[in-house]
Each structure stands twice: as structure tokens, then as C-alpha cells.
Amino acid sequence: MRKFEKQKAINLRKSGQSIKEIAKKLDVAKSSVSVWVRDVNLTKKQKNILSLRGSSGVISEKRRTTRLSNELLKRNTIISTASKDINKFSNYELKIIGTMLYWAEGRKRGTRVVSFSNSDENMIKIIMRFFREICLVPENKFRAHIHIHSHLAVSSAIKYWAEITKIPKKHFYKTYCIPSISSKGKMDSLKNGTLDIYVCDVVLFLKIMGWINGTINRLK
Length: 220
Description:
220 residues
């Protein structure tokens, strides 16, 4: 089999094909092809053609890189311009935003605990503003609970979320570590895990449910 592949590689090389092209056609390593065809002498014309192909590849890659760079610039320009459409929020607007966030990511069953869960630090910051500025939750009523995969650093996660939420570390429940070896490579993007924020307040829970219902009714 190798003898056949070697002869075919030599024939292809004599026809002026590159080592990379031959390796791809025969589904073998480029190092093998290089050894098989080392005694094949190409004509000056064939060498020029291969050289031009190589140059063409470099030019194509430069064009692709430039195109992607231009596309990224256009995307960033659109995002930057659109972000300027958003002005400072009033308390009422913050109330609606917080209500919608809670509707999407908060606990809606039961009647005892207000609970919000997410891994996005900006979403957590916004919901904390909602709880503090709109719901007027006393600082001593906040509790936090981290869910994190067991191979990640728990102490770093606690420090991280304590800084994001401004909730004292002493108000964090014992971290829940999820044993999952198979997810080690996949979940490192969530190196600080997911945070649950709890407020034990029946009245606040019912108010938020009412705000959600009110918003839905206004949009029907």
C-alpha cells in the first residue's frame, strides 16, 4: 500500500502539485510526502507556479483578516451608536426593568421567598439596584448562595460575588459545589458559578408578582 502511495505521490509531484496538495489527495502526512518526492526535480515553470500559489494564499488570508476587521469595526460602531439612544433611567423605569428581570429569572412559585438566580454580573448588579432602590430591602435581609463546579475556586467566587452584590460574606450560605468531571472543560467560562440572591419577605414577593401581572395587563 505504501509503495503504491509513494509512486502516486511521485507522479503527482512531477505534474507540478505541492506537497500539501498531494498529502491531502492521498490522505497521508505531509512529512511522508516530503520524503517520497525529495528526489523529484521540478521545472522552473512548476516552481514559479507553486510560488505564485503560496503568495496567493497569503494575499487571500490578508484580505480575509482585513474583511473581518472591517466587519468588527462596523458592528462595534452600530453597537456604540445604539447605546447612546438609552438615557438615564427614572425610578419608574428601573421598577419596570427590575420587574421584567425578575419575571424572567426570579422564583415565581411559593409565597415566602424572593429569589433571583443568574451568572451574569451586570444582571446581578441591576437586580440589586432594583431590590435596594425600588423594593427598599434592608441590607440585613439579603442572603446569597453560590452554585459552582467542584474543580473551580470557591473562595475566589465568594470574593467576586461579594464585591458585585455588596452583600457581606457572612450572609453567604455554604457554597453548593456541583461534582461534574465531564463538564470541566465546558464550564470554566462560568468560573465564578451562578449566584442566587434571597430575600425572605412574603409581602415583597407578592408585590413583585403584582407588578408582573400589572405589566402584562398593560401590554395586552
